[in-house]
Each structure stands twice: as C-alpha cells, then as structure tokens.
Design brief:
This protein is of the alpha/beta class. It has two domains: 2-202, 3-Layer(aba) Sandwich (Rossmann fold); 209-426, P-loop containing nucleotide triphosphate hydrolases (Rossmann fold). Helix content is 38%, strand content 17%. The protein has helices at 2-6, 11-20, 27-37, 52-63, 79-92, 109-116, 126-134, 151-156, 160-168, 185-194, 224-234, 247-259, 273-284, 295-298, 318-325, 346-355, 411-426; strands at 42-45, 72-75, 100-103, 121-124, 145-149, 175-179, 199-202, 212-218, 240-243, 264-267, 290-293, 308-311, 335-341, 362-363, 372-375, 381-382, 386-387, 396-399. The protein has a seven-stranded parallel beta sheet, with helices on both faces. A seven-stranded parallel beta sheet has the order 10-11-9-12-13-8-14, with helices on both faces.
Length: 441
C-alpha cells in the first residue's frame, strides 16, 4: 500500500486499492502514473491485464470535478473493452461519486443519451460516439483527458479517421494518453500531430514466458475438431479460450463442442450485446469454463485464471497470436498455448514464427482419439476445416478420429502419414526454430 501512496494517487483511489488488497503497483502503473499526474502526454506499450486502467484513470479521477460535464474521454476498439474499462473506472471513482458512461453500438441510444446528460467520464467506441456527437447528445468542449486504449487495434479496425474527427472536437490543451501493444507508422504519425512532446514508456511482457508452454499438433483437416474435443475433455482445463478466425467458425465450434459434451459458449461481434455480456460474466464467474471467440471480440478482455489458450485457427496477423497467448500464464501462474495445425494453417504459422524470433513452440505427437459427431448447419462446413459451401439441412456425421493405427490396407492413409512425417522433418521444427517458409499443400 505504501508504494501506491508514493505514486501520488488521491485518497479516493487509495481507499479502493486498500479495499481490493492490492499489494504493489504493476510495472505500467509505476512508470506512467507519476508522469500522468504531472500532466504529461504519454505513449505506453502494455498488454491487457497489466493494470493500465488504473494507470490512465489516476489523473482523471483525481482532477475531474463531479457534475461539470464530460471531462474524461476514453476511446476503445470494442464494446467489450468499453464495458470493462467503464466498470473498472466506476470502481476506482466510487468514493468520489463520479459518473462513468459506457457508450457503444449494438444497443439502443436512448439509455445512453440519459447517461451522457450526467456523465463526468465517458468510455466509448469511436463509431457510436460520433453518432451521439452528430445528434448533439454530447459535447467534448470540456474534455481535459483523452485516452486511446488498444490504439493499434482501433487502427487495424479502420477507426483512424473516426478517431481523428473526435480528437479535433476536443480542446487543444487536453492531456492525451495513448496505450498500445505496438506502435505502427500511422500511430506514430498521430502522436506527432495531436500529442504534445509525449513521453514513451515500454514495459516487459505481462506474460511470463518461463511459465508458458507452447505446443502444436499437425493433423489432417478433418481431425482438427476430434482432437480439440479430446484435449478439452482430457487435460483438466479450468478456464480455456478457443480462438477461431471467423464468427461462423466460432459458432460452429461452440455448438459442436456442446453436442459432444463440452460446456462451451461462443462470443463474437455478431451476437446481441446483452448475450455477449452474459456469456462473459458466466465465464469470469467460473460457471462455464470454455469460451470460443474471435480476436475482435476477445481484444481487451481481462479475465484472470485462464489456464489454456487453444488456436483452432491460426491467425493471419502474427501480432494476434501474441495477443492470444497473452491471455494465460499471468501473475505467476502457469499456462499453455495449444495450436492445432492442418494444411491451411501452415502459411500463417510460418508467418508467426518469422516475426517472433525465439518463440518456442514444440511439436507434440498426436494422441489417439475417437471419432466425434459433428452437425452442419447452413452454410455447410467443408472437412470441418472451415465453414462455407452449400447447406446440409442440419444433418450430422462422424468425422476425425485417430485410431491406434490407420488401417493397414489403406494406401491413402500410409501416403498421408508419410507426408506428415516428411513435413515434420522438413519444416515444422520445435524448440524455437522457424517452421518451413513454404507451405506444402
């Protein structure tokens, strides 16, 4: 507690920290809070779960005056992150009785308009905030603190111009804080244009790589799901996140996991917001231990205790891989990242290895596992590798399965085994060495 007091935090925030029994500041808090309280613009590199909400909220909560209009504005790329940041700020601002409003799409504007009338701090996604600005539901004339949280993701999602329009409506003498896992050329250009002599802060990865085990399995396309079911049932998973590249695959995987006796739920941007919040609460409360998600839906979510991250689909962007595995092995706890590769994943996996030198991802021998039942809805999944093609009218079939030995008389099975063995020798090497650069298809 003494270390928090030395940072200069106000008594209202210190009381909350004491109630939460926080022992010491995180690295990002220790490095940025003094600068923020001095009024400096800051560019900080930090991951989800590093304690950045308290870091950028410290000055805001200390100096914002209740009932004087919107003085603090935080922009986030996703609805989930907006909701999460708003909840955290409400907790830290509890004893100062500040009003925090979360503004995002997917829900009605009416209740948000009522919140904005009394808000001291607003946490918003860019698109919905612009809607309210155009309807004169909010003025940014009194904003003293502007925060861009997960700025790299906002740029990736195409919010660059929207953010620019919002910033131009804020006072020029405001304090601007930019938090981002990576700083691209475009983000650097934004900082040059809109920030005043920003201080750049970098911190070590929040993921403890010494406690994170990364492995991969190399299987056929139609074996992916069967192996996934086998691993989820047999590894004693406490809390797991399964990543897919598309909404359709997330729904498809979650539905068929349930059909095979695995308690899972999907979460992605195509779902109703109330349902997304309900799923996240069940997961965070431990009522359901497996969540199947897309990168956009999961971005910024800070859920403690995740023991396993499964990459059912390997991401195209190597940075997304780092964000995914960063969900586990936190705060001194052990974690595992499991990659299930088929032929369509080779290029993405090679790209991940190429851009993250020293990444240790070891190959595991594929265990024996039974066939599983898979039900296809419209549109149909092909080989259960991805979802596309014509409808199947809800019919199901058994797929996958790894028997003690493929049928001895099956020449096709022998050819595929030989190709996989050759592949493992030629390219997909564990121990941190790069996988082969060219895919074999």
């Amino acid at each position: 507690m003494e270390q928090f007091e030395k940072l200069g935090l106000c008594e209202h925030v210190l009381k909350v920290i004491s109630n939460k029994k926080f022992e010491k500041p995180s690295e990002i808090q220790e490095k940025t809070i003094p600068l923020i309280l001095e009024g400096k613009d800051v560019i900080a590199g930090s991951a989800t779960g590093s304690g950045k909400t308290l870091a950028f909220g410290a000055g805001m909560i200390k100096n914002v005056v209740k009932g004087n209009g919107v003085q603090g504005l935080i922009l986030t790329p996703t609805r989930e992150l907006a909701e999460q940041v708003a909840c955290a700020l409400e907790e830290f601002a509890y004893y100062k009785e500040l009003t925090v409003a979360a503004i995002y799409g997917g829900v009605g504007m009416g209740p948000q308009i009522k919140k904005l009338a009394y808000a001291d701090i607003v946490v918003a996604t860019p698109g919905r905030l612009l809607d309210h600005m155009q309807n004169n539901n909010i003025t940014l004339a009194k904003v003293d603190y502007l925060v861009l949280d997960e700025a790299d993701r906002m740029w990736d999602m195409g919010f660059k111009d929207d953010v620019g329009r919002i910033v131009k409506n804020c006072p020029k003498d405001k304090q601007t804080l930019l938090f981002s896992a990576t700083i691209s050329h475009d983000l650097a250009g934004f900082a040059d244009m809109y920030m005043k002599a920003p201080v750049e802060i970098s911190v070590e990865s929040y993921v403890d790589t010494s406690k994170l085990k990364q492995i991969y399995y190399d299987v056929r396309d139609n074996e992916k799901f069967g192996l996934m079911v086998h691993l989820l049932k047999g590894e004693g998973t406490k809390l797991a996140m399964v990543f897919c590249n598309t909404r359709r695959n997330a729904d498809f995987v979650a539905k068929n996991l349930i059909n095979n006796g695995v308690h899972a739920r999907a979460i992605h941007g195509g779902m109703d917001q109330s349902k997304r919040i309900r799923v996240l609460k069940e997961f965070a409360d431990g009522k359901m231990n497996i969540i199947v998600c897309t990168d956009v839906a999961a971005r910024g979510l800070d859920i403690t205790g995740v023991t396993h991250v499964y990459n059912y689909d390997l991401p195209k962007d190597h940075r997304d891989y780092i964000h995914r595995i960063g969900r586990t092995a936190r705060a001194g706890e052990s974690g595992m990242a499991v990659n299930i590769l088929a032929s369509r994943d080779y290029d993405n996996f090679s790209n991940i290895q190429r851009h993250n030198e020293g990444l240790v991802v070891k190959r595991e021998n594929t265990p024996r596992f039974p066939r599983v039942a898979v039900k296809f809805d419209e549109p149909r999944a092909s080989k259960y590798g991805g979802v596309h093609g014509r409808a199947s009218r809800g019919r199901g079939r058994n797929i996958g399965g790894r028997r003690p030995e493929d049928r001895k008389g099956d020449s096709r099975g022998r050819e595929q085994r030989g190709e996989r063995n050759k592949r493992s020798k030629d390219g997909f090497r564990g121990g941190g060495r790069n996988v082969r650069q060219k895919s074999r298809r």
